[in-house]
Please model this.
Amino acid sequence: MGRYITTTGTAGAVVRNITTTYTAVANDRILANSTSGAFTITLPATGIDGDTIQIIDVAGNAYNNNITVNNNGNKIQNITDVLTINVNYASITLVYVTAYSGWIIAGS
Model:
């Protein structure tokens, strides 16, 4: 079974306040603040089924200062492109699925 973020509060997650380039680890809840400029979050190079990473644009600046999610050699949504967060106050949850060789965006 993978590592995952619980649905209540911050229990089970490691909360990271990020304002610059960062390499994520499984179970991160990333509070991304791009007020000072755009930056990149790099996903782990390997994962196990169910690993979860959540990225939240906490300051609402992603439209002007994009948050780029580097796939680190894996796929995101079964494609090899990077993911760009460019919607203010966006929140995404990525789940690692071996069968897809990478990360999928979890629905709510």
In short: The two ends are 20 Å apart (CA to CA). Strands lie at 14-18, 22-23, 28-32, 39-42, 52-57, 67-70, 75-76, 83-85, 91-97, 102-105.
